[in-house]
What we know:
By secondary structure, chain A is α+β, with helices and mostly antiparallel strands. Chain A has 16 helices and 15 strands. Chain B is built from 7 helices and 16 strands.
Amino acid sequence: MAATDGADGAVIGTGGLAALVRLLRERGRTVVGPTVRDGAVVLAELESADELPYGWGVELEAGRYRLRRRADGAAFAHSAGPQSWKTFLYPQRVRRWSADRGPDGALAVAAEPEPAVSYAFLGVRPCDLRAIAVQDRVLTGGRYADPDYRGRRAGAFLVAVECTEPGATCFCASMGSGPGAGPGYDLALTEVVDADGHRFLARPGTDEGAEILAALPRLPADGGATAQAARTAVAGAADRMGRSMPPVDLRALLRGTLEADRWDDVAARCLTCGNCTMVCPTCFCTAPEDVTDLTGDHAERWRVWDSCFDLEFSHLAGGPVRSSGRSRYRQWLTHKLGTWHDQFGSSGCVGCGRCIVWCPVGIDITEEVHALHAEARGGCGAGGCGCGAAEDGAAEVGAGGVGAGGPGAAPGTGP
Amino acid sequence: MTAPAAAVRGSAAVPLPYRVVRRDEETADTVTLALEPAGEGLEPFRPGQFAMVYAFGRGEVPVSVSGVERGGSGGRRGERLLHTVRAVGAVSAGLHGLRPGDGVGVRGPYGTGWEPAAAEGGDVLVVAGGLGLAPLRPLVRELLARPERYGRRSVLLGARTPADLLYREQVRAWSAAEGLLVGAAVDRPGPGWDGDVGTVVALLGRARFHPPDTAAFVCGPEVMMRATARELVHRGVPAHRIRVSLERTMHCGTGHCGHCQLGPVLLCRDGPVLGWDRAGPLLGVREL
Ligand SMILES: Cc1cc2nc3c(=O)[nH]c(=O)nc-3n(C[C@H](O)[C@H](O)[C@H](O)COP(=O)(O)OP(=O)(O)OC[C@H]3O[C@@H](n4cnc5c(N)ncnc54)[C@H](O)[C@@H]3O)c2cc1C
Ligand code: SF4
Ligand code: SF4
């Protein structure tokens, strides 16, 4: 921690934020952060903090995403957008190696060099900070490390921004991944906009974070008022989460659901389009692509994002293992919340809500889990489990068979 | 950054160049290729482990090591890998069509092996259906090389027709080995077949073993492994002492592509060889 900061951290203004972007760029980093483009808050390279989405918020519902103007001018009062940081750390398409065939038939294989990019991510939401940690474990935590991911990740400087304005589709609080920032950041910011002005509480998480923070212009000390306001705002956000998971051991719940009727219900609505897997910040499945040039003696191996919703995904010589939509949705959900623990020692869901927002038919992971829970209990009313599904209607949707499709048609599970 | 075992050459990201030095036709659609490292070779494979084998420009597929040989001229390590490949699709057909001198890429070793050490002191059953004998052949070699470590040893083979039986010369030699019972059954016998007709499961009645201390190693089509394991459990062989080798799509071998999931199991990492205590319940769920 920087010696000049109290336990509460330092306070910087919007000028300090602008200086942060400048400083990170001067240090040779590619700064990526949220900005408004094509009707959404996207993640893109920033040349200055002016490009941040000052004064923009979002309205989220199942199958629905809208930008909305905010009077307070806040820069980070929007929740997860269509992209996540995996777009940069684990790009949709990368070359892994090239092979050349000599005249005698012998092969020479050249590995793609580890990327030398040096990112700074500005505005990493706590759910996404956790998602990066989840992908770290998947892609570098086992016996083999993915070299491309490792190269991109090793150099990345993470500026987390805590959540004070959760969306209607957010449920990080029930996944334990927000709205306060967990470990892993270099610098954490909490945005406060009130009668006393627009400012950020800043706390370093690493030596480099402390060093950078020390170089930023500060606002005058305010006796801890900003720190207090930041704490109150983050605590309030936890209470205003739009959605939640049943407060049970989800891993155990999912393990017991493999033959549930609910899978048929959701399969009748699911288009198996795979949108949920593309937007999910932890989904990591890929497929290879082999290409040759016109000479036929130069070949390249690429890796592209793949989806467990694709029929080809489980292809074997005798046909796909998971041919029904039921089995593919089940694979996705039971992996995310259940078997991910077995494979990688954590949940694969961080509660960002992207899969709910970007599902074209508004399928809601929390609603599905509430319904599975209700089915496992023989109905919430009977079980008296207190998970909230009975009150919010999720169990009734299940009982009614096929839910009404169409964006936004799925009932919310929150207030 | 700590880089776990990624530094092990060829095992993580990039195939090492090998060269085909021999091509033996086994059946109408199956060949055994002997591959020799063009430069440095891979780490040694344990029986049951697999490699990702790259057909230039076409792609990579998981293929078990069906044997190793001390190599000839090339390669510092000099160990040749034998792969028995059936042409079923684009990549395997590409490998099937290779000729001596052609280059391939190989990564590995990957996955769990048969781990015969756990079988020492008891009776051993090797049960193979069709191509399933390929990954089991190194294990049979081990049983032949160290008979003193094991009790009664049986190798039971099944195939569609006599012409689909792999390694026929070798199997004849195994039959002559002392203390090793070799049985073969085919679905459809041809002229001159004097062996059994039916499934390999029926051969279990002929093998002599004391179920509680028996270890079984089973590989073949999923239905065959299921039937064999059920019968063995029924006869009193403990489920965890029945080891099966499972097949799912695999694109990376390193636990990253996600394709080989079978419920909680990543088959390229936690398998392909699993105890039936784990595999049985998972295979019992449709479309898992
Ligand atoms: C552990 C293990 C050990 C094995 N050992 C052996 C062995 O010793 N010998 C042996 O012969 N076989 C073995 N196999 C099976 C072998 O790997 C498969 O037969 C082989 O992968 C088939 O590949 P293919 O390209 O020839 O066939 P295909 O069935 O055409 O395709 C194989 C792969 O390519 C992909 N693919 C195919 N078509 C498409 C498409 N249109 N679009 C996108 N992707 C596509 C599929 O996802 C599939 O995974 C083993 C398998 C495993 C898992
Ligand atoms: S499963 Fe849905 S809510 Fe969970 S991390 Fe993925 S996109 Fe976010
Ligand atoms: S749940 Fe929604 S986003 Fe996911 S595959 Fe089904 S229809 Fe597509």
